[in-house]
Amino acid sequence: MKRYFKYVKPYLFYFIAGPLLMILEVVGEVVLPALMAKIINVGAPDRNIGYIVGVGAVMAVFSFFMMLGGIGGAYFASKAAMNFGADLRKDLFRKVQKFSFANLDRFSTGSLVTRLTNDITQMQNLIMMGLRMMLRAPGMLIGAIIMAFVMNPSLASILLVVLPVLGTGIGLIIRIGFPRFGKMQEKLDKLNSTIQENLTNVRVIKSFVRENFEEKKFGESNQDLKDASMSAFKVVIFQMPLMSLMMNLTTLAVVWFGGKQIMAGGMEVGDLTAFTTYIVQVLMSLMMLAMVLLQSTRAVASSKRIREVLDTQVDLTDADAGEKEREVKKGKIEFRHVSFRYYKDTKEKVLDDISLVIRPGETVGIIGSTGCGKTTLVQLIPRLYDTDEGEVLVDDLDVRNYSLENLRGGVGMVLQKNVLFSGTISENLKWGDDGAGEDQIAEAARAAQADGFICSFKEGYETVLGQGGVNVSGGQKQRLCIARALLKKPAILILDDSTSAVDTATEAKIRQAFATSLKNTTKIMIAQRISSVMEADKIVVMEEGKIVGMGKHEELLKSCVPYQEIYDSQMENRKEAGA
Q: Among candidates 382, 370, 384, 385, which has minimal Cα distance to 339?
């Protein structure tokens, strides 16, 4: 509870007012049956209309205040629950935003979506229900038991048999239900992941005609969730008939023994009516408590999953940064004996003893076979990951001594997977500089060879992009991402195979624009095509996580066998394509 008190404190008034107003309902629930008994026992036999009207008026007043209490209690309970959930969701989302890539690898996207939505909703439901029942159910239970024993102690002794039986049954139901609700949330995670993956990659699925396979996979996940849900809700299904059975048996027993007392002259009809109402109230309050406890089992399972995210130690922070105010200015980069592994419990290194110096304003190409560590290497520069061994320095300062904001603010990245967001082209480009004007945006787009196709659209820069940029081609998407990075005007620009979908002529124009508009920017270009990097100031050749060659194009053709093999292979393919 200490973990969540920070979300309760700002709305403490709502958390207190809600249950207190529900006390008005409790008072009415306890008093009304006694007043009704007076009408039946006194007013009706004597045919005293004035007495009946007077007591009825008092009952109407109580009913009015019960209505106000019920409305007010529900209103404040809702306010408390909704505000609690909104603040918790905000903090949970903020925590996810701080996650490093390594942290994100622990949770699937579907799981995080479920935790941010469904799991928080379960906690909101518990708070809403709990605040409404917190004082009402116990108050009604205690009040009804007291009134029952005051009215007829011998008849009320029936409760001494019923309450332990119900308490035991409710305890067993909760004990069985708790683990089942946890499993149900896990199955919901899996289903959400399947849906998210399917909708994101729907074009790939259609192009490979894999709809039947995906339907089968979805069906399996859906069936698993249904089975887990049924297993959990069987507990709820069993609870209601149990409570109803006990309520009906108890009512029957009360009417049977009470009827005998009336016939013997030991009890009045009005008292039996009121007594029966109190017995029903006792059982109803127990049913309310059972529903709250059952909801709490589901909410506790959700709370555990939320805490897993909140308690995750972010393994990449700038808390110990020595020069947080420092910004990246020159763009010098140095790798000193850098090694890295994605899985820390294995000996296999993705990068092994990398040493490399990139001077300010230099254009460096990185080439090598798939999986040789090219992308991993450049991701260490803006600290998307941290090294296992060695140091990465930017402007002669270890990247761990920068604030993450200033370090990443000085580095522009165009990743392998080009991502655009829902909104206009202009809004997407402004990710690079939120305050950029129309002229600056157009200049960046021209440098990225994107202005031409943007202007061909009817709405130009105000063209609305679909989710992920689905209404532009792969090459157009790459150029928009490059323009976005250029608008940032970074000291270091990293292009991770970001022109693979662009024809060679357009790619040449982009490189030419880099040479003029980004003359002082350090440029790192990862590429599969040698033609993309052959004019670079320096080409780094990688193989199995190591640097196996470094130099200009002509030098590497003479001295680096892996580079020669890549070159020969590409030239041969080009000849075959020409033939």
A: 385
CB 154 within 8 Å of CB 76:
no
Per residue in 145-195, pLDDT (tens digit) is 888 888 888 888 887 877 787 777 777 777 777 677 778 877 877 887 787
Name the residue among 461, 449, 460, 453 with its Cα closest to residue 502. 449
Element (H, E) at 327: none
* CB 267 within 8 Å of CB 202: no
Which one, of 257, 111, 107, lies nearest residue 186 by Cα? 111
| Cβ contacts of 438 within 8 Å, gap of 6 or more | 426, 461
How long a stretch of residues is the chain? 579
Rounded to an integer, what distance in angstroms lies between the CA atom of residue 503 and that of residue 525? 16
Q: Are 327 and 406 in contact (CB under 8 A)?
A: yes
Of 182, 1, 4, give the one whose Cα is nearest residue 88: 4
- If you search the block for the tokens 């969730």, which residue do you land on? 225
| Whole-structure pTM value | 0.73
Structure-token match 């209601």, residue found: 240
E strands, 246-377, are 333-340, 351-358, 363-368
Q: Give dist(CA 86, CA 25) in Å, integer.
A: 29
d(Cα 69, Cα 487) in Å, to the nearest integer? 58
- Residue 419 CB coordination number (10 Å): 10
Amino acid present at 466:
G
Query: How many Cβ atoms from other residues are within 10 Å of residue 508's Cβ?
Result: 16
